[in-house]
Automatic annotation (TrEMBL):
Organism in which the protein naturally occurs: Profundibacterium mesophilum KAUST100406-0324
Protein name: Uncharacterized protein
Length: 103
């Protein structure tokens, strides 16, 4: 069976998770179950972005997989910033770093 992977989160960009689901609606449902509970209606500001590059992964996407998919991920430098390749972020030894790390 082929997986369909999605990056799902709130439109403010925090707390996104990777979800395997057949449809966009199912991906949003899975996110809502995870963070809000199975009895909660899916909030309107949830975004589910299809990430075909993740379909072939055997495990959950790692930080570098979020970056190469054009998304952001928490910097491994411990600074609390998000790393993304759109800015000056980079991948070192398979881990994501923001523009200011490592230093
Ligand atoms: Zn950093």
């Amino acid at each position: 069976m082929t997986k369909k992977m999605w990056a799902v989160g709130e439109d403010d960009g925090e707390g996104w998770i990777a979800v395997s689901a057949d449809t966009e609606a199912a991906a949003k449902r899975a996110y809502t179950d995870e963070w809000h509970g199975a009895d909660v209606k899916v909030p309107g500001h949830i975004i589910a972005q299809r990430v075909e590059a993740w379909d072939a992964l055997t495990g959950a996407p790692e930080g570098k997989d979020w970056l190469t998919a054009g998304l952001s991920y928490l910097c491994e430098g411990g600074c609390g910033s998000m790393a993304c390749l759109d800015g000056a972020g980079k991948i070192i030894d398979g881990k994501p770093y923001c523009e200011d790390c490592p230093n």
